[in-house]
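Entry 14. Ran structure prediction on the chain below.
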Amino acid sequence: MSDTNVSLIPDKRLLSLDFFRGLTMLLLVGEFTGLFSNLTAVDNTFIHAIGTQFHHHPWHGLHFWDLIQPFFMFIVGVAMPFSFAKRTERGDSYQLLRKHALKRSALLLVIGWALYCIVPGKIEFQFQNVLAQLSVTYFITFLVIRQKPSVQLIVSFGLLILTEIIYRSFWIEGFNHPFTPNENFGTWLDLQYGGENLSGHWVSFNAIPTTAHTIWGAMAGTLLMSDKSPMKKVKILAIAGLAAVIVGYGLDPITPIIKRIATTSFVIVSGGWALLALAFSYWLIDIKKSRKWVIVFSVVGMNPLFIYLFAHLEGVKYLRAIIYPFTQAAFSWMGQFPADMIQNTIIWFMMWYICYWMYKRKIFIRI
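Output, structure tokens:
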């Protein structure tokens, strides 16, 4: 990644990665507009069921939306080998790479905390969001990215086993129920530094097991950079992904799939889906050369940090204030639900167009 705030797009890119990242970010932006919330408000069983998949599962189980953060953390891992190879080619030493990785991790941690630190009447330390979590997974992945694949796998599964042992063996009364909301080690740890998120059951310790997502992403990125044939790469990704999905679901009776505390089964099954999604994207875009429509997603995928921060820092609020009088005047006669859907879709498009405008001017926000 560039050290500067504004950089030019490289001549050659892995378009499938831009597509995968752009699709993930577009879906995330859709949540900020309220588009998916509208679906669950409809008195229609089928539409309501679809809308439910765009919300996190309340505890034990897996919805489609539970895959978005794992996808994002996995994608960051995929990009790491490409980024570091580019820096090495221009002469950066390992010490410079390490300094950059440490700086980037620190900035992600600070930004992640700052986005959630102010609550009514006080300032809190909360590190449950994706950027704060990524600051940890990114740096740990950097530390092992030059190791053999076997070592990377051992580290990733070692973190999962460590998490499993800690949760199951934690002894403090009231927090010794590993898979019960707010009665587990993760909640206890957050209470120690005042970073509790009791209402949502999210825990900061998730950064440790979900490091596996970023490590597996880096391994996938290294594979894509290798001299293996394109179809061989797809087969390896697809077989690994399918195996992980089967194992993850198979573990559910033993260790329940719970995203909010990133259980072992959840990390494995979501990592499997990430591998399968990357395999399909690479096959479709970089092998079959189906690229005419990719620009719709890649313009967002090239500016993920910008669109994430824009959405968090009330960008949606200001866009809504601009178009609300017009959408209400034009569509209120249709009823509240259709008017809200149209309004939120327009806001979604406006956010995409901002990324497109930046892409046309070769403006890419990095840290």
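The first helix runs from residue 15 to 33. Will compare against last week's run tomorrow.
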